[in-house]
Design a protein that fits this description.
Helix content of chain A: 40-55%
Distance between the termini of chain A: 45 Å
CATH superfamily of the largest domain in chain B: YVTN repeat-like/Quinoprotein amine dehydrogenase
Distance between the termini of chain B: 112 Å
Oligomer: heterodimer
Number of helices of chain A: 10
CATH architecture of the largest domain in chain B: 7 Propeller
Order of helices and strands of chain A: EHEHEHEHEHHHHHH
CATH class of the largest domain in chain B: Mainly Beta
Number of strands of chain A: 5
CATH superfamily of the largest domain in chain A: Response regulator
Strand content of chain B: 35-45%
Structural class of chain B: alpha+beta
Radius of gyration of chain B: 54 Å
Largest sheet of chain A: 5 strands, parallel
Largest sheet of chain B: 5 strands, mixed
Radius of gyration of chain A: 19 Å
CATH topology of the largest domain in chain B: Methylamine Dehydrogenase, Chain H
Number of helices of chain B: 7
Structural class of chain A: alpha/beta
Number of domains of chain B: 5
């Protein structure tokens, strides 16, 4: 038998970590070598424990999962990263994959799919379940909001008015209004509520 | 001519008395009233009296000119620069064109026209007299000579000596229009050619001429240093005997009675060849009268040197007492004999019979001083029978016969007498009842008394033959023989003071505070409910007009006849009552009520009552007097006095509006009642009263009409005097201010709405955020939880066949997971339901959690807070709460403690919670992170880590457990 796959789990939900451990420890061909709940511990652990696969959650305290993926991928481009997240937005999927992840699973994927994904990622192959793939396909690639626009949209999703958003971002209300109209344009909607709803749906903004 | 109209108007408006001062009356019978400084006169030397064009009386004194309305003296409201209020006024004239001329002691002539005072002339010497002749030329007699007013200036009449120092009423114009002037040389006449000729020089026979007055029937009345003379200005004047000099003022009143004031001797009246006299001996304040005037109402006004102002007038009620020659004043009986002549009885003052206007003394059985007339009745022969407590005195025209002296006469104390139509004599006694002598004279032995022991106070035979007896304890009646007495209600008790049958056959019984009227319909009790006073009412009489007169110890009351009929029909009506007192001619308000009868009506219709100061006669009313004329005198506000004009503008902010009004009536002004109203403010007339002021604190903006009317007692309401007031609106009352206010209010409402919207949105945003958080947590936690459970179950299934014990372990763990997530779900749902009370702080929440968990377990708990509890982000507090909850429940479940302490430490940069128990503790060998399922610590650690904080656990077996969670605060992120 070949060496068991070395897995690093980066997950902030305790019980899910437990469940992962249960699932993985049941199998002889995989082994969890390290766990962490903090995003910023991911890279150091990768460096110290040298896993083959990193199971990465996107919502983490400290730095976000996307950032952690980006760091690992920069440092260790050969390391396979499997995203296991609650986020189902096409934008999230796209971002994660763009950042360097090889696989994207939702947490309700089930043990079978999970194992399959792990083995795929170990082999360096992309693994995206059909449902997720469909999401990706659905995604309108042109929606590329600027950082500022994303900020504005995030604030709108929180229920801020143009003025409040301007105050928070340190820009004038007028500027905010300009951003908003651009956002509406890019998303192809007619009012802010639609924009916010769409953004949340797609994962363009997370209501954190 | 305007002047004619004014005069005519005045003549109509001012009440016309039938006479001036009744020449047939004695001077003593005139009502006299005097005013001096105490009553408001500026000074008690009255030099001139004239009626003003608008109905007031102008009174000039040595200290200024005042206007009198009958009640009050007020300075003329004119330009103060001429200081009329303090000048020594010496002459007054109201010209026919309505202007007023004032002459002063220091020689100034002032004209008041249309409210403006103008000085017309300044001479060096006093103005003695002012007069307007028939052509309208104003003449002034001054110490410098005679002046007349022509073309705006005064011209001196040349060739005339000045008047003497103590002659003041020196000008007269006779019926032909000729001018007469008294000078120190004698009487001059204006010949009409611009010159005056001496007609009557001063002679020793007639004395120095002092005053002249034109007689109505032609000729002149002349007052001289020697007395009063009648002449025609040509021949020698004829002296009027009985009037000594020096006569300084003479007037002839409208009845032709001549009044002459003799300086230092009082006032003389010459009427129908008779001269009567009144002086300080009779009660005149001052024997030196300077001026006499008759006003439009026939009143005589006197101006005295130190006695002030006097008014003599005729009153409807005329007194007859000792002043008029009676021997005594205590009047008690007035009774008509069968021929209709009135007999008047007194106590110790004699007996009189009325002949015309005169009371003729009658013989009395005892010396006057000893004779009291208590009762009087006339037998069928017309002879008077007197009764008193010494018995009966029968007069046959020549001699008196005395009946019933002595103690054996049970009826000897006579209090009432009656001869019935059958000729029977009824004797009412004071305490021994009523005796009936059918033979018309006393019998011995007397018949048994009716109502023995009653005190009979009055007797009356009704037209139906019923004999009524008033007693000290109610009314009794004896029906005529053969007549069954009608069923009547219980007679009221209370002393009956008199009995009277009116023209409709109704029996009136007067008592204290009430009148009982008995007619065919039954009994009517009139009392204070109908307006009657609540003291004794003595005698009731009815005059020819149907008006009822009631005497009392407090004056005489007049009951208007229509109101009497109304009250007898409906018990809820009220009587129209006028009261009469000393102002109206009574010398005393105390009428007499004990003797019987205490009042009667004479054949001329006059009503006579006995009083404690003589008899009074109420003359029949000959005509209705017009209501008095009302004038609005003054308007003052908080901004000062306002000029009266037909329209008055009141500026914004005007308050305390006070209107003063008066009615010009010089007879009994105090009885005049007023009512007023302000349109827009009063819906109806304000209740009538004698007050002459109306006050309003404030008027609403806009025009208002103030109206006031006056009324004599029992008279009609006069026409209204009115004033139009326009109240400027205050800023806050103008329409555009209201509009502004409305707009401001609307704007405020709009702003509030927007603010609320904003606040709601803010809250909504917060709620959304909260919901989002909850949703997110639900999503993340629970979905992840389900995923985790699902994975576990898969793993369990995978191991079930091969390694069942492993599967069993896995399932056990799964079970705990489910338990955990169920609790999480409950907590999340609880959050969603907002079960947590609004104001619950973290410490409180921890306390509550503690209480919930240790309930019934007998564990001691304590929560301590250190530092300033601050409002931290909900997320943070929430998680800290969960950490504490977990630590506490772990402790309870595993450590079996006796005591749990929780400490919350708030610091500027972090929040720390320490949960300490004294339980079992645990060591490193205890599995708290692993599969055994005690997840608590791991979960707690995770929560702390989620916020960048840390968890520290310190425990030793048997030594308790301490869980310390530290979370940095957002602001302090470094």
């Amino acid at each position: 038998m070949s060496e068991p796959v070395r897995i690093l789990v980066v997950e902030d939900q305790y019980f899910f970590r437990l469940a992962l451990r249960t699932t993985i420890d049941t199998r002889a061909d995989m082994r969890i070598v390290a766990e962490t709940a903090q995003g910023d511990e991911a890279l150091p652990l990768c460096l110290s424990h040298k896993p083959d696969v990193v199971i990465m959650d996107l919502r983490l305290p400290g730095i976000s999962g996307f950032e952690a993926i980006a760091r690992i991928h920069r440092e260790l481009p050969g390391l396979g990263i499997l995203v296991l997240s609650n986020y189902e937005g096409s934008e999230d999927v796209h971002r994660a994959l763009s950042a360097g992840a090889l696989a994207y699973l939702t947490k309700d994927a089930g043990a079978e799919i999970l194992v399959e994904a792990i083995l795929s990622v170990k082999a360096g192959k992309r693994f995206v379940p059909p449902a997720i793939g469909a999401l990706l396909a659905e995604r309108v690639p042109a929606v590329q909001l600027t950082g500022r626009e994303r900020d504005v949209l995030r604030l709108l999703a929180r229920g801020c008015s143009n003025r409040d958003a301007g105050e928070q971002l340190g820009i004038s209300e007028n500027t905010v209004r300009i951003h908003v109209s651009r956002i509406l344009d890019k998303l192809g909607v007619t009012d802010r509520t639609q924009a916010v709803l769409l953004a949340i749906q797609k994962g363009l903004v997370h209501v954190d | 001519m305007i002047s004619r109209t004014v005069f005519g108007l005045l003549a109509v408006l001012l009440p016309q008395a039938a006479r001036a001062l009744d020449p047939a009356a004695a001077i003593s019978q005139y009502h006299k009233r005097y005013w001096q400084v105490e009553e408001g006169l500026p000074q008690s030397y009255v030099t001139a009296i004239r009626p003003s064009p608008d109905g007031y009386l102008l009174v000039g004194t040595a200290e200024g000119l005042v206007r009198f309305d009958g009640l009050q003296f007020r300075p003329l409201q004119v330009d103060a620069s001429l200081k009329l209020a303090n000048r020594w006024i010496s002459a007054l004239l109201t010209a026919r064109d309505g202007s007023l001329w004032v002459g002063t002691f220091d020689g100034e002539l002032i004209e008041l026209r249309a409210g403006k005072l103008r000085s017309k002339h300044k001479t060096g010497g006093s103005i003695f007299d002012l007069m307007e002749d028939s052509r309208g030329v104003i003449w002034a007699s001054t110490r410098d000579g005679l002046l007349h007013y022509r073309n705006g200036g005064f011209l001196r009449q040349p060739g005339l000596p000045p008047p003497s120092e103590t002659s003041w009423n020196v000008l007269a114009t006779d019926s032909t229009g000729g001018l007469w002037v008294v000078t120190s040389a004698g009487l001059y006449q204006d010949t009409g050619e611009g010159t005056l000729r001496l007609r009557l020089p001063n002679t020793a026979r007639q004395g120095s001429l002092l005053t002249v007055h034109a007689a109505r029937s032609g000729g002149l009345w002349l007052g001289t240093s020697r007395g009063l003379f009648r002449g025609d200005g040509k021949g020698a004047p004829v002296a009027v005997a009985g009037v000594p000099g020096p006569v300084v003022s003479v007037i002839e009143d409208r009845d032709g009675v001549v009044w002459a004031a003799s300086w230092g001797h009082g006032l003389y009246r010459a009427a129908h060849g008779k001269v009567t006299h009144w002086s300080t001996a009779e009660g005149l304040p001052d024997d030196s009268i300077r001026t006499l005037t008759e006003d439009g109402g026939g009143n005589l006004w006197l101006g005295m040197r130190s006695g002030g102002l006097g008014r003599w007038r005729d009153t409807r009620i005329v007194a007859y007492g000792m002043n008029e020659g009676l021997a005594g004043d205590y009047a008690t009986i007035v009774a008509p004999d069968p021929a209709g002549n009135l007999w008047m009885g007194t106590w110790r003052g004699g007996v009189y019979r009325l002949a015309g206007d005169k009371l003729v003394s009658q013989p009395v059985p005892l010396p006057t001083m000893y004779f009291t007339a208590r009762a009087l009745a006339f037998d069928p022969k017309g002879n008077p029978w007197f009764g008193n407590w010494e018995g009966l005195f029968e007069f046959d025209g020549r001699r008196y016969k005395h009946h019933g002296a002595g103690p054996e006469t049970p009826w000897g104390r006579v209090s009432a007498l009656l001869f019935d139509r059958g000729g029977g004599l009824w004797v009412g006694t004071a305490g021994r009842g009523l005796y009936r002598f059918t033979q018309g004279r006393p019998e011995t032995p007397p018949p048994p008394a009716l109502f023995p022991e009653a005190e009979i106070t009055a007797l009356l035979e009704g037209s139906d033959g019923t004999v009524w007896a008033g007693t000290s304890n109610g009314l009794r009646r004896i029906p005529p023989p053969g007549v069954t007495p009608r069923q009547l209600a219980q007679f009221p008790s209370g002393a009956v003071h008199s009995l009277f049958e009116d023209s409709r056959g109704r029996i009136w019984a007067a008592s204290t505070g009430s009148l009982l009227v008995i007619d065919a319909a039954g009994q009517h009790l009139l009392d204070s409910r109908h307006g009657l006073p609540d003291h004794s009412l003595y005698r009731v009489l009815e005059d020819q007009a149907g008006t009822f007169w009631v005497s009392s110890p407090r004056g005489i009351y007049e009951l208007e006849s229509a109101s009497v009929e109304r009250v007898l029909r409906e018990a809820s009506a009220r009587l129209s009552i006028a009261s009469y007192g000393q102002e109206d001619g009574l010398r005393t308000i105390e009428c007499h009520g004990l003797s019987q009868p205490a009042g009667a009506r004479a054949s001329d219709g006059s009503i006579w009552f006995p009083t404690a100061r003589g008899f009074v006669r109420i003359r029949p009313k000959t005509q209705r007097t017009a209501p008095p004329r009302v004038l609005i005198e003054e308007l003052t506000t908080n901004l000062g006095r306002r000029e009266l004009a037909p329209n008055v503008n009141l500026g914004a902010g005007t308050r305390n509006i006070e209107l003063q009004f008066t009615a010009l009536r010089f007879s009994t002004p105090g009885k005049i009642r007023f009512r007023y109203r302000m349109t827009g403010l009063d819906s109806d007339w304000m209740a009538a009263s004698t007050l002459r002021t109306a006050r309003y604190s404030q008027l609403p903006p806009g025009p208002h009409v103030f109206e006031v009317q006056a009324q004599d007692p029992l008279g009609d309401w006069s026409g209204a005097a009115s004033l139009v007031l326009y109240q400027e609106p205050e800023f806050r009352q103008t329409w555009w201010f209201v509009l502004l206010l409305g707009m401001a209010a609307a704007a405020a409402v709009w702003a509030m709405y927007r603010w609320r919207l904003h606040a709601v949105r803010g809250r909504y945003a917060a709620v959304i955020e909260e919901r989002n958080r909850i949703g997110r947590e639900w999503h993340d936690t629970l979905v992840a939880g389900f995923s985790a459970i699902s994975l576990q179950l898969e793993a369990a299934l995978a191991n079930l066949a091969a390694r069942p014990d492993r599967a069993s372990e896995i399932l056990e763990m799964t079970r705990r997971m489910v338990h955990h997530y169920r609790a999480e779900a409950r907590r999340v749902i609880w959050d969603l339901r907002d079960n947590r009370p609004e104001g619950e702080t973290l410490p409180m929440a921890i306390e509550n959690a503690l209480d919930r968990v240790v309930e019934h377990r007998g564990i001691q708990t304590h929560v301590k807070v250190e530092g300033e509890p601050a409002m931290l982000p909900i997320e943070l507090q929430h998680n800290m709460l969960r950490i504490c909850q977990e630590a506490i429940s772990n402790s309870v479940r595993h450590a079996n403690p006796a005591r749990i302490d929780v400490e919350l430490v708030y610091r500027a940069d972090q929040l720390m919670a320490v949960v300490r128990d004294d339980g079992r503790g645990f060591g490193p060998e205890d599995d708290f992170g692993g599969t055994a399922g005690h997840f608590g610590l791991a979960v707690m650690r995770e929560r702390a880590r989620r916020h960048g904080g840390a968890l520290r656990i310190d425990s030793r077996p048997g030594a308790g457990t301490t869980v310390e969670a530290t979370i940095p605060l957002p602001g302090a992120k470094g």
